[in-house]
Each structure stands twice: as structure tokens, then as C-alpha cells.
Amino acid sequence: MNNLSVNNKTIDTILVLDFGSQYTQLIARRVRESDVYSEILPWDIAEEKILDLKPKGIILSGGPNSVTDSFTPRIPKCVFDMGVPILGICYGMQTLAEQMGGHVISADQKEFGHSELEVLKDSDLFNDLDRKINVWMSHGDQVQDLPDEFDLVASTSTAPIAAMEHKSLPIYAIQFHPEVTHTDHGHKLLDNFILNICHAHADWTMDGLISQRIEEIKAKVKEEKVLLGLSGGVDSSVTAVLLNKAIGKKLTCVFVDNGLLRKDEADSVIRTFKEKMELNVIKSDSKEIFLRHLKNVEDPEQKRKIIGRTFIDIFDAEAIKLKDIKFLAQGTIYPDVIESSGSESKDARVIKSHHNVGGLPEEMKLDLVEPLRDLFKDEVRRMGVELGIPKEMIERHPFPGPGLGVRIIGEITKEKTKVLQEADHIFIEELIKADLYDKVSQAFAVLLPVKSVGVVGDERRYAEVIGLRAVETVDFMTARWAHLPYEFLEHVSNRIVNEIEEVSRVVYDISSKPPATIEWE
Ligand code: XMP
Questions:
Q1: Rounded to whole angstroms, how far apart are CA atoms 426 and 432?
Q2: What is the value of pTM for the model shown?
Q3: Which band of pLDDT confidence, cut at 50, 70 and 90, is reported for residue 243?
Q4: Which candidate in 39, 90, 253, 344 is catalytic?
Q5: Mean pLDDT across 195-204
Q6: Are residues 281 and 380 part of one domain?
Q7: Which pLDDT score is estimated for 353?
Q8: How far is the CA of 400 from the centre of ligand 1 (A)?
Q9: Within this chain, do residues 343 and 447 fall inside the same structural domain, yes or no?
């Protein structure tokens, strides 16, 4: 994806050289929020890749290492030789200092949290910012002696050298993290670097990006046919609509209805993509096959495996029926590419393809088309809205691949699926009505494997128990249970027990992650 061009104009790129920080992706996202394209490469990538990218500027990320140890990650020599502006952040600053002749020490105490930065010298990096700024620190080491040719720019009470700049070259370094929202005006500081120091053009716009992707797809696919597994999730939907715009009916989407989707979801996917947006979609109604394969299976991992394998078999069978397919399109997105390896490795590519559509028969030898491969989720969402996909589909909470299969605890049956779909539907409908849906990150119902007593009229009966789960989270790695109003929960619970005969009791999950996971299985 190097040297991107829109209408034959090369797009300016900021390279984020990754030293392993948890914030690396955030840096790249912040740059793109300023409409400048950015790409992440690991610090030890072959130098040609860095040169090929022709970046307008380079940001060195933080990282978990200490430059005071031997054999720690270092900035490749070409970064200095290219003559483009450099901004080192945290570890990026420390290794920059060390490599340019300064001295870094391990501080007695790790500094983690807010700190007040005092800007001591006029600097293009701090242009239009206050002299005192609240910044976010997260480091153990710090620069003790400035390298030759560097000036001190800012200090905090614990880090006397918290920002520095080269006397004559556009090289800057900061100890704090401008990419996190806890740093006041971090965005402005990054803009100063990207726009004023690197002079990068803010030409990474959604409009331009869509036309560029359409041109790329046309050039790659030519007259050949493309296959895509459409799940109704954001990534595959956006990929499908983008490809449809580029190559129309040469794209065939296969949608497998596994019977474990949310209420009316299968119909809504078909209505949206096949009928309204006129995509070429084949629906495989495979509900019965999935149920058959899942009969008597209680173990969650077994269930996941069976659902995955059955999906692959069905997808493959549909694919084989189609003649002369040359490409497989996938909704791989940037975090899928960088998550597993920290680099654009082939391994990451294999993981997503297996995750989504499994191993297609070898003899089909399909080439991949992955037009979202360098986009973050929020960019994919923006693209989806721009392409005319209904907002409700784009802004839906995440839904696991095995679907309700992991939300029916224990054995899956048709009857239980129906009960769960109804309960889940009521919960989500009420969240939307109460304007709470967008305030939580994920919400759903779970069908528990116990029955509990209830009284209906004069009759006592054992009936199903529904668990409701709603969480707030940024990254889904940790999550807090959502403090939904009691009146709201009461109303949802009443509706569920009144409208679904098979349910006698509703409970609300008040566990956070960790230790609990978001799903129950
Ligand atoms: P946990 O339960 O691990 O969930 O806290 C974190 C996020 O991942 C989703 N999830 C899955 N997604 N296949 C998927 O595609 C799965 O097997 C699966 N399990 C959990 C979950 O919905 C949440 O968003």
C-alpha cells in the first residue's frame, strides 16, 4: 500500500516506527484523524521498506524496553539519512537521545500518570500551546544528558528533560504521550509536527479514499470473478459494497445463515445487501445442518470448533459451485494485520483468512483482495456510512462469529435459540428506545442452563432464566459492567417475562472483565 495515490496524486505519508508500545496504533490513528495518511512499520523492518514509503515525517513510538540494557531496539540508520522530520515519543525519545550521543538513566521510580509540563523555550512543536500543559507520562527511563546539538525545550518536576529539539535539524523528542486523550492538546502538538514541521498535506479524505480503492480494485481484478463471505458484520459488509461499486456483478457474496444470528438478522442482511443495494448475494440456509452438528454438544470450545468447521464446509461447497473464481475478497482491517505480529507479515494474512472463511480447497488457488487492509475500524465505519450502508448496521455492537452459539450455555436447540433471540431483541430494542444503546459498548442476552421456579396465575412452573449483559469498554480487553438505570432494567425484565412464555426470571450480570469475560462462554 505504499505511495498511495488519489487521482494520480501521491498521498503524503507519516511513518510510525513501532518500538512495541501499547499506544502505537493510537499514534497512527491520531495522525489519520488529521486527514494525513500514516502507516506503522516495526523498528526492525528491512530498510528498503522504510525508503519505499517515502514518508514526509517519522514518529518513533514508545516501547517496553530500556535503552540502558544491551541489545535493545534501535532506530535504523536510514531514518537519520533520509533528512525528514523525526519525532521521538517516550522510548523513541530515549533511543534517539542515546543514539545521538546523549545519556539515558533508569529513574528510581516509574512515572505513570498526569504530570505538569513547563515549556521553557519557543519551539515549532509547541506552537500555539500554553506554557504549562497537563501531560500523560508512562516511563521508567529518562534522558539525563542532552545529546550534542540538542536544546532543552520542556521539563516536568520529575523529568528535567521532558522535551528536546535539535538545534538545526527537524528532530524533536518528548517524554510524554501526546496521542492519549489524557494529554491536553496532544492533538495540536501532533498537528504541529505533521502539518507545520513535516508539511504533510491533509489529503487523506474518505471521498478520495473510496475512489482510490475502487480504482485499485478494478486494476487488480480486471475481468475476473471475486468471491466474498458476507457475514453482515461491518468489515465484510463494507468490503462487499466497495467491491460492488468497483466491479458490480463480477462479485458474488455468499451469506451462510447458521441459525445462530440475532432475531431477523438473516432477513435484514439479505434485504439490505441483495434487495436494496443490489449486490449479487447467494444465501445458504444452513440452519438445520448447524443444529444437527451441534446436537448433544455442551462444551463451549467444541461448539466453537463445530460452528467454525461447519461454516467452512458450507462456504467451500458454495464456492466450488461457482465457476472461474479467481479472487477471494476479505474484510481484513489494519488491527488484524498488526495485532498478531506487530508487522505486515504473511502470517497475519493467513490468520484472518482462516478465521473468516477457512481453508478453501487448495486447487482453487484464489488470490486475496483486501481493500480495507490498512484501515482502522472507525475509518471502515466512516467508509461504510459514506457508501450508503444503513447506520444501524454500521454502528451495531460487535457480535461473535459463533453467534448465539456461545450465548446459549450448554446444548443448543432450535427452541432455546428462539427464546434467546426474542429476549435479546427486547433488550436491544429497549436500549435503543431509551437512548442507551450507543452509550454501552456491547449488550446482549444469555440463556442460562438452569431452570427456576415462577408463578403464572395460580400455577408454579419451572422455566428458563435469561441473563442480561451490558459493558462499557474501549478495547474489549478490559470492560466495566454498565450501570444501567434500575427502572430501565425493571422494564426490560417485565417485558421479557411477560412476552416470552418460556422465561420466568431475568438476572443482570454485574461482573467486570477481568476476571469475567464479556461473553459467558
Ligand atoms: P470476551 O468474551 O473474550 O470477548 O471478553 C471479547 C470480545 O470478543 C468477542 N468474542 C468473539 N468473537 N468469536 C468472535 O468472533 C468468538 O469466539 C468470540 N468470543 C468472544 C466478544 O463478543 C467481545 O466483543
A1: 10
A2: 0.81
A3: very high
A4: 90
A5: 96
A6: yes
A7: 40
A8: 5
A9: no
